[in-house]
């Protein structure tokens, strides 16, 4: 009984359930059955359906038709026919539509919050105060981008019809993250909801119709992986955006390889939550609650891996346990619930299995005293799991490495800041990191060194439409939110009219470097073979072979090294060692580039003669190419200290820095056309941004790049920053695409080669940039230089930091 004395004794909350009758009335209005939303209207729920249940009690909420081939086809058709008129609207007109959607979301905020809670199991406090407001914020923010698109992104066009596939953990928010930038850019959309949670997307579709969004601009198909694969594989799409598991992300990378679709992947994570001994411990404990018990821990960027400095670990864990003891798990609709229901029985089973395996591995599991059999009995009908803490975890164990995607924190200790960073980066993922220290030097030093796309200092799990979100390493590539997120839905306008590169001739067969093929043959003597350039030294090719470099009439000019797998490996090794380059200031890198331009210019005549001899373009054109190459290096010398990021103020007392960071090692396959300018146009922006590169120059005309060896040496380019391996472009590109220490691959060659690079890069999910066999006019500054190159040469790290108290 709730007598005042007992209430004062326990200080417990009474039940405070949110009203859900309006949501139930909506479900009833639809007869509890839904189809797809195609061409501006809901279709009849024909064919196979799947059940949507409330994970808090197993109640059947609705049945939803699974979209098959015909539905996906119809949705893409609707989006394709809407694209023409939608993309032709003025920015202001598109902005008004996005604004109208934002208003609709705000108007129906309570309805959407309750529906999301019923469907997903997340606490109403979170849907009401976080998910739905962020959804509205996203549409408002992108209404602004629609208005500003042409001013802010001159020379760009909308990508086209976009396929978008979302997960179940933030169903409406993930929809907003995808749909808002697409519509703002002028694209139309086919979105596939997640099979556990399609309901808010269906309600959103109705809101779009009510807001007067033109038919076909937003289309929704529902279903599981099979439907997703149909969307991803549809040839009518120009872009695919995916959020979900790394496993499926990898499948999609392979499935879309060579299709010409732009791809962005937001994948899994095992994000570190680093607590230094200089942290405000109470604040950090509260931070853990938001890091891992927000949304039941079903958060891709959850701070699921605590790293605590040894001296404070016992105190920190004791306070954490006391806090966990007071967390409330229960009805998601109750306003005083902290942790709601996990999305589905299959997810509970997966969490249990991982926790049991952790115990079997020898780690120590702690759960609150109330997480006993009685809790299990009380929550039998629903998918509930108590907050859990593992200590005594070994850094290499599955517990520390694999995503659990539930309310389970694993905690380890470290001694020094250096060790903290090493442990933090000891993961195949790189989505987010949360860093706690009152010492700014310590916090920012770790923020800079952690390999993650989002870093929160003395905070965690903060999101905003203006701040880019996305991963490093196997957490995927591409960003959602902010200016960088808009670029994911735009393409350079000239690309739409680009012609195919002319079919290249086959390379002459390689010959042994020191073999004797007899008098009169193209035999290679050691002296005549142009070597490779690795780690600042000229090296013989490991294969022991070279290949003839011929003039346009087929006469031998000289021989170039026949690079192989081993040479690429050595080059990557050298590039890895040159990491000081990435830490240099833009100013210091700019000076090297200026010097490089100067030294190339001094030898302009010699380079022009070489280009003419190899390609037969004539001395005037060859001279023009060298001059353009010098100018291009100057361009990136100028840019080196200016592409240095932005500051955003997403919330009153927080700043977010958008810092472009290098990929570190980029593999580059250069085009055959414009052998010097093509090489310089790709290498200069990459190194200007702090990357080290492994490059295969033009395969038929490699000598212009090889002549650069001495220029690089005399221009103070540190050893290992530029590594050049001559040979067969595609054979070498496949080695680079598969190499785990290369984080990005650029490829300018054939359509088949482009497909191969995209497919083979799926292993460590490299960011790829390929030309799909389309030619670029390297002399045209609109095509051959500029923001696109810098965007491709960097990835944004968003660092959130408190700015005031
Ligand atoms: P999932 O990869 O199984 O499913 C995600 C979506 O992909 C669903 O809509 C699903 O139906 C669809 N899908 C499944 N197989 C497919 C296929 N072969 N082809 C096309 N689509 C397919 O992941 P999940 O279990 O729904 O979500 C949890 C995962 O998502 C976690 O790993 C989490 O870290 C990740 N996640 C990442 C982010 C982020 O922004 N990085 C955000 C939320 C969730």
TrEMBL record:
Q: Which residues does the Swiss-Prot or TrEMBL record annotate as the active site?
A: 266
Q: One matching Pfam family, short form?
A: Aldedh
Q: Which UniProt keywords apply?
A: NAD, Oxidoreductase
Task: Show the SUPFAM superfamilies listed in the entry.
Answer: ALDH-like
Domain (Aldehyde dehydrogenase): give its ranges. Answer: 44-490, 546-772
GO MF, one example: oxidoreductase activity, acting on the aldehyde or oxo group of donors, NAD or NADP as acceptor
The reply on keyword ATP-binding is no
Record field: transmembrane: none
Q: Does this UniProt record's set of keywords contain NAD? A: yes
| Family of the protein in this entry | Belongs to the aldehyde dehydrogenase family.
Q: What is the protein name stated in its UniProt record?
A: Aldehyde dehydrogenase family protein
């Amino acid at each position: 009984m709730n007598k005042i004395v007992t209430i004062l004794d326990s200080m417990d909350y009474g039940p405070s359930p949110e009203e859900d009758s309006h949501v139930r009335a909506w479900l009833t209005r639809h007869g509890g059955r839904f189809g797809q939303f195609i061409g501006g209207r809901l279709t009849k729920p024909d064919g196979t359906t799947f059940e949507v249940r409330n994970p808090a009690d197993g109640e059947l909420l609705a049945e939803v038709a699974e979209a098959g081939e015909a539905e996906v086809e119809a949705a893409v058709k609707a989006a394709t026919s809407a694209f023409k008129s939608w993309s032709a609207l003025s920015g202001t007109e598109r902005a008004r539509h996005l604004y109208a959607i934002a208003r609709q979301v705000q108007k129906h905020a309570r309805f959407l919050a309750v529906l999301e809670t019923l469907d997903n199991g997340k606490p109403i406090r979170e849907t009401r105060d976080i998910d739905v407001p962020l959804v509205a914020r996203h549409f408002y923010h992108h209404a602004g981008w629609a208005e500003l698109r042409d001013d802010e992104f001159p020379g760009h066009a909308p990508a086209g019809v976009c396929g978008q596939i979302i997960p179940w953990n933030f169903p409406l928010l993930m929809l907003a993250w995808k749909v808002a930038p697409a519509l703002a850019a002028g694209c139309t959309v086919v979105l596939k909801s997640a099979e556990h949670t399609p309901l808010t997307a269906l309600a959103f579709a109705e809101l779009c119709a009510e807001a007067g969004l033109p038919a076909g601009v937003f289309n929704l198909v529902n279903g599981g992986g099979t439907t997703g694969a149909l969307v991803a594989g549809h040839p009518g799409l120009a872009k695919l955006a995916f959020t979900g598991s790394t496993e499926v992300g990898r499948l999609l990378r392979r499935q879309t390889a060579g299709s010409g679709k732009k791809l962005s992947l937001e994948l899994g994570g095992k994000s570190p939550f680093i607590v230094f001994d200089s942290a405000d411990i109470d604040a950090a404990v509260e931070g853990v609650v938001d890091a891992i018990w927000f949304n039941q821990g079903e958060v891709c960027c959850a701070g699921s891996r605590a790293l605590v400095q040894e001296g404070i670990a016992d105190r920190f864990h004791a306070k954490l346990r006391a806090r966990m003891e007071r967390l409330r798990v229960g009805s998601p609709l109750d306003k005083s619930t902290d942790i709601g229901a996990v999305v589905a029985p299959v997810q509970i089973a997966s969490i249990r299995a991982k926790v049991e395996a952790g115990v079997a591995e020898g780690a120590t599991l702690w759960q609150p005293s109330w997480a006993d059999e009685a809790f299990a009995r009380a929550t039998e009908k629903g998918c509930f799991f108590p907050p859990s803490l593992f200590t005594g975890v070994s850094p290499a164990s599955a517990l520390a490495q694999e995503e659990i995607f539930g309310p389970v924190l694993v905690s380890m200790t470290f001694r020094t800041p250096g060790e903290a960073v090493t442990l933090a980066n000891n993961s195949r993922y790189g989505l987010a990191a949360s860093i706690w220290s009152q010492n700014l030097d310590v916090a920012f030093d770790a923020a800079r060194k952690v390999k993650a796309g989002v870093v929160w200092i003395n905070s965690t799990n903060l999101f905003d439409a203006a701040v880019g979100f996305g991963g490093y390493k196997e957490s995927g590539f591409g960003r959602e939110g902010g200016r960088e997120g808009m670029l994911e839905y735009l393409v350079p306008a000239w690309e739409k009219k680009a012609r195919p590169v002319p079919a290249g001739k086959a390379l002459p067969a390689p010959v042994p470097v020191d073999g004797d093929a007899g008098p009169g043959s193209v035999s290679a003597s050691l002296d005549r073979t142009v070597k490779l350039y690795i780690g600042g030294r000229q090296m013989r090719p490991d294969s022991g072979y070279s290949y003839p470099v011929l003039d346009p009439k087929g006469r031998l000019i000289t021989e170039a090294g026949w690079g192989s797998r081993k040479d690429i490996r050595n080059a990557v090794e050298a590039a890895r060692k040159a990491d000081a380059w990435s830490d240099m200031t833009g100013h210091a890198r700019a000076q090297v580039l200026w010097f490089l331009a100067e030294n190339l210019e001094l030898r302009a005549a010699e380079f022009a003669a070489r280009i003419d001899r190899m390609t037969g373009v004539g001395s005037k054109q060859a001279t023009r190419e060298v001059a353009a190459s010098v100018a291009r290096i100057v361009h990136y010398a100028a840019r080196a200290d200016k592409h240095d990021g932005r500051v955003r103020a997403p919330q009153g007392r927080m700043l977010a820095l958008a810092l472009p960071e290098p990929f570190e090692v980029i593999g580059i396959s250069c085009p055959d056309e414009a052998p010097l300018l093509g090489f310089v146009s790709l290498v200069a922006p990459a190194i200007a941004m702090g990357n080290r590169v492994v490059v295969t120059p033009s395969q038929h005309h490699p000598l212009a790049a090889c002549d650069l060896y001495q220029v690089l040496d005399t221009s103070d380019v540190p050893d290992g920053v530029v590594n050049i391996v001559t040979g067969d472009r595609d054979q070498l590109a496949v080695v680079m695409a598969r190499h785990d220490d290369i984080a990005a691959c650029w490829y300018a060659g054939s359509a088949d080669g482009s497909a191969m690079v995209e497919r083979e890069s799926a292993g460590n999910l490299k960011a790829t940039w390929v030309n799909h066999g389309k030619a670029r006019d390297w002399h045209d500054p609109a095509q051959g230089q500029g923001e696109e190159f810098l965007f491709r040469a960097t990835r944004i790290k968003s660092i959130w930091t408190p700015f005031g108290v």
